């Protein structure tokens, strides 16, 4: 019996980091009776975050030696290669080639799909969705004896399977992707037990493949325009399994979940019935949100993320996206009215954009009260439409992962660096500092654009926390650390502008809202010392800081924030 390993390296250890791609391949291989008769298929996933600095060897050495220790003989390995693990897995393949020369090493995944011929350490590369071609390839390979196999590999044989490349072969033409699988017959890696949910605490839930949009920077720009949806029956069974397994969160993989309103409403209803205790993350399109969908989302334990990318329609046009600002604002308003949690993504370094244009996008986004605002540097991913046109658009970018833009005709190299520092400052204050409940009322009181406030915060960080600015790693800071930094900055910034009375209000809001967010996110109850009465701080009056400061009476107290069966509550425990 031969062993086939489907292996990957995950970027981090989290309920949202699962080896779904490798597991889908493992499931399809296991479902083939021909393959099952002569090989056993195993899934192996390593977390690069866990490996980190915890072992003396490199991540590649660690993965190679761990696999060799666990398996007496390695016959076939299929690696799932992504931007974050390409270098590690290429090195790992080279090490395995030396220590187990008879092992056949195959690569697939997004990075391989983009440019299969750029990989040199694998015997075969599979471009495109690999379920069909990996099964065809493994059937061919399992039929051969070891000596026949090495001859075929040396001879550059690719078995004439579409999307499969033997790197000893010389190619003159462009590459073709694998034949698309029919998703209605694909086995589920959850239902067949390939993925053990208890190991991860969360799930990536694939509802559909393909995207009707063609944003030029996305792998989907050259992917399948047609959407294939997994069957309702399969999805409902997976939902029941998620619920039974006790996982806390599910990240929904469907880039335009709400594009088909009927299907979206139907699945939201199923989620409400079958998995009411799980938190769901959706990627959605704002132009397809209406009142009915907004209400349906509000009844589910979930958060929505929208790829806004820029608030400038002319900039978006250059990357093949559109934006109707009025409609976007109106539809996001439905979510705010219904209390749905949502966030936006923005990109800096887009062709046609500038640093001040990017900051305008931040201002536009924050006025819509997102729960989080994620800001990314544009990557020119190989194999995308953007990579074909990037040079003519004036982009200069890294030629190796993560393929970040270095400069454009609108962003100098210095502007790109500045956009990164600005994004870090905004991320730390707004997202990590959980400032959403009070940020915009503070901004209105200051008569200042959000971006100007973040520029001030950025300048403060450069002066007081230069190491933090050099590292730009938000996850290195606990919420307590960020609260301390927020308070230091607010105290300094408000005092210089003679807004002394507002300092106490800001501190109270940081503490009280912080206690609520800790209770919601981590289930921890806590007590906070306040200058104002907590009833006043939780009232609508706090939306107008001028009014509040003029009218609210000081009432020093300790307020406890605690759980009840109807949700979080608070009460004064000491005056
Ligand atoms: S960015 Fe999202 S909407 Fe655009 S092509 Fe990619 S998956 Fe589709």
UniProtKB/TrEMBL annotation:
Cofactor: [4Fe-4S] cluster
SUPFAM superfamilies with a match to the protein in the record: Radical SAM enzymes
Iron-sulfur recorded as keyword: yes
GO cellular-component term (any): cytosol
Listed Pfam families: Radical_SAM
Keywords: Iron, Iron-sulfur, Metal-binding, S-adenosyl-L-methionine
InterPro entries found in the cross-reference section: BchE-like (IPR051198), Cobalamin-bd (IPR006158), Elp3/MiaA/NifB-like_rSAM (IPR006638), rSAM (IPR007197), rSAM_horseshoe (IPR023404), rSAM_sf (IPR058240)
CDD domains reported for this sequence: Radical_SAM
Domain B12-binding: 1-148
Protein's UniProt name: Radical SAM protein
Organism: Treponema rectale
């Amino acid at each position: 019996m031969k062993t086939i390993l489907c292996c990957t390296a995950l970027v981090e250890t989290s309920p949202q980091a699962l080896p779904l791609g490798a597991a889908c391949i493992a499931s399809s291989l296991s479902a083939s009776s021909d393959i099952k008769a002569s090989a056993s298929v195993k899934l192996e996933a390593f977390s690069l975050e866990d490996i980190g600095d915890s072992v003396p060897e490199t991540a590649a050495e660690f993965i190679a030696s761990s696999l060799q220790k666990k398996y007496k003989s390695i016959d076939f390995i299929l690696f799932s290669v992504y931007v974050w693990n390409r270098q590690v897995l290429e090195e790992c393949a080279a090490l395995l080639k030396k220590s187990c020369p008879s092992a056949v090493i195959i690569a697939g995944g997004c990075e391989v799909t983009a440019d299969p011929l750029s990989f040199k350490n694998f015997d075969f590369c599979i471009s495109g969705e690999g379920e069909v071609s990996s099964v065809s390839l493994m059937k061919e390979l399992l039929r051969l004896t070891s000596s026949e196999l090495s001859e075929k590999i040396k001879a550059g044989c690719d078995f004439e399977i579409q999307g499969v490349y033997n790197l000893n072969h010389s190619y003159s033409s462009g590459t073709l992707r694998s034949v698309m699988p029919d998703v209605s017959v694909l086995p589920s890696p959850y239902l067949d037990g390939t993925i053990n949910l208890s190991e991860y605490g969360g799930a990536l839930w694939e509802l559909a493949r393909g995207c009707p949009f063609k944003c030029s920077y996305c792998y989907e720009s050259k992917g399948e325009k047609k959407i294939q949806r997994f069957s309702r029956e399969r999805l409902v069974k997976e939902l029941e399994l998620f619920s039974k397994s006790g996982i806390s969160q599910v990240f929904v993989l469907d880039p335009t979940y709400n594009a088909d309103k009927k299907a979206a409403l139907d699945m939201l209803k199923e989620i409400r019935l079958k998995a009411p205790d799980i938190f769901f993350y959706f990627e959605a399109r704002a132009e397809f949100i209406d009142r009915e969908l907004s209400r349906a989302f509000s009844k589910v334990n979930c958060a929505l993320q929208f790829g806004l990318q820029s608030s400038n329609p002319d900039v978006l046009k250059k990357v093949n996206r559109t934006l109707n600002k009025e409609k976007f604002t109106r539809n996001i308003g439905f979510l705010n009215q219904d209390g749905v949690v949502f966030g936006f993504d923005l990109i800096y370094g887009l062709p046609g954009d500038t640093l001040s244009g990017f900051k305008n996008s931040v201002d536009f986004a924050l006025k819509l009260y997102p729960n989080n605002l994620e800001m990314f540097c544009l990557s020119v991913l190989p194999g995308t439409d953007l990579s074909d046109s990037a040079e003519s658009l004036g982009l200069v970018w890294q030629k190796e992962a993560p393929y970040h833009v270095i400069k454009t005709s609108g962003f100098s190299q210095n502007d790109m660096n500045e956009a990164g520092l600005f994004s870090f400052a905004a991320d730390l204050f707004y997202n990590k500092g959980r400032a959403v409940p009070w940020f915009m009322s503070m901004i209105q009181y200051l008569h200042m654009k959000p971006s100007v406030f973040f520029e001030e915060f950025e300048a403060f960080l450069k002066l007081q926390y230069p190491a933090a600015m050099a590292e730009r790693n938000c996850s290195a800071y606990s919420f307590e650390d960020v609260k301390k930094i927020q308070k230091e900055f607010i105290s300094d910034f408000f005092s210089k502008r003679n807004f002394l009375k507002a300092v106490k209000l800001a501190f109270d809001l940081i503490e009280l809202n912080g206690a609520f967010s800790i209770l919601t996110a981590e289930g921890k109850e806590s007590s906070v010392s306040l200058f104002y009465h907590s009833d006043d701080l939780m009232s609508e009056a706090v939306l107008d800081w001028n009014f509040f400061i003029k009218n609210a009476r000081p009432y020093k107290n300790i307020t406890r924030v605690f759980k009840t069966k109807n949700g979080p509550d608070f009460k004064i425990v000491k005056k």
